[in-house]
Amino acid sequence: xDIRKTFxxxxxxQQTVRELAALDNRQxxxxxxxxxxxxxxxxxxxxAL
Length: 49
Known about the structure:
The chain has helices spanning 3-21, 25-31, 38-47. It is an all-alpha fold. The protein is elongated, with a radius of gyration of 12 Å. The chain starts with a helix and ends with a helix.
């Protein structure tokens, strides 16, 4: 894997974590996500790139 792709995935992971962490628990619940799921959801998103 080239370094650009690795950086792109890392940046996508970080952005997703930031955005989800900024939501309150009700908003996360509306999305079907708990606080403990944020890292997994972000990782899955980054891996899909």
